[in-house]
Write a structure and sequence with these properties.
The structure is a homodimer. By secondary structure, chain A is mainly alpha-helical. Chain A is built from 9 helices and no strands. Chain A is 59% helix and 0% strand. The longest helix of chain A has 24 residues. Chain A binds a DNA duplex through helix 3.
Chain lengths: 225, 225
Amino acid sequence: MNTMTKTLSTGSGTSEAAVPKVRVRDRILDTARGLFYRYGLRAVGVEAIASEAGTNKMSFYRCFPSKDELIAEYLREQGRGYWDWWDAAIAPHAGDARRQLEALFDNYMTLTCKDGSRGCSFGNAVVELPEGDHPGRRVIEQHKAEMRGRLRTLSSEAGATDPEALGDTLMLLMEGGYLTRLSFCSQGPISVAGKAVRTLLDAHIPAVAPTARTPRAASSKRSKA
Amino acid sequence: MNTMTKTLSTGSGTSEAAVPKVRVRDRILDTARGLFYRYGLRAVGVEAIASEAGTNKMSFYRCFPSKDELIAEYLREQGRGYWDWWDAAIAPHAGDARRQLEALFDNYMTLTCKDGSRGCSFGNAVVELPEGDHPGRRVIEQHKAEMRGRLRTLSSEAGATDPEALGDTLMLLMEGGYLTRLSFCSQGPISVAGKAVRTLLDAHIPAVAPTARTPRAASSKRSKA
DNA sequence: CTAAAGTGTTACCGGTCAGTAACACTACTC
DNA sequence: GAGTAGTGTTACTGACCGGTAACACTTTAG
């Protein structure tokens, strides 16, 4: 029949007998996340998703009106997870935007270089959805716009003289890392993202008025020159 | 029948009557280039390609052993065009690697921002070909490795203190621009690529020995502060 | 002129796709 | 206990997919 019934049968177990307590909809969405991310949107059929989730196509269509809507929901779900990760990455350095950016990129590198990584769900999805009216496109464009906005805001808070330029440059860096991840096994260009972001930060953030010394980014980083 | 017979019937015209003189194989490959780039690999079927090329599926399979092989050939063709463009972009500044890089990125920006652009054929293709054994993957990985190598070489020739780091950073920038192009209509983050490359060049290339002062990036870039 | 290569045409194969109809069963709620 | 919502199962539709068989035709090369 299907190949993952047992794998997914561990329910939340509110009562005693922990059988497949998880709602079909959640199981499907969870399975879709894995399959869509790994193999792509068009490569995965609804039947494959349903059976991998331990159910069938009929139950699938009781939860989702169409595959396209599932794709949109998948992207929304990925978005929620993404911002959770983002917020967690910058939280330890609240108040110091420069450190937040550095931490964000360090975190991003280790995550994106991991074995199972296939880059960015949204970037991959938009390649497969050229049609402008697909319900998933709205989610993607919104997500990327939010990403751009956040990087610009952080750049501004970090004291960049041209925060829009810095934010956009950081975005190019990030997106480039996601994309190159698909063509290079390991030790790809993304390896330099950490250094690159620091170089850009140095170039865009003026040293604070040298009335005295060691105001901000002049200590450890300047030692390079 | 088909919709483009007339459009493609302009042959090379070695003789007089310029009917569909172009070989079927070339017509198919040319049509595939347009369709694959615009709509993606999986979204376009061989029948659609054949009929758009003014022929049919049977003639298609006389020229190409399979769709996967057509995809590989499509990518090889794109690669040839890409390096032609690349060489043409840097040719006017032979001998001055820094200018070559600037010209390359300027050219890249105007091209990638154009209306019909859908980013990088290779980047888009690799998203749709997760299977490691697809004949197209070899072409993609080879292309991206070549790209990385060229950027590193140019960085070295430009006098960068760490040419590998600069080259890889430029690659991230470029790839990021290609990818973001798909999510932003116009005025996307790629708009800053020109400025970004110059900032990075300034940061990575030491000012030529001034025999006196100004050790590294203290001239033009520092004037911003 | 003849032969071969290239091409067009129609019909077909087995498989998969997204999406639906109809019916049986279980579990929880009231 | 009855009702209802959620779920499983089987079978199906119509469309499309990549790929092939068989045959007729035209163009080119010798």
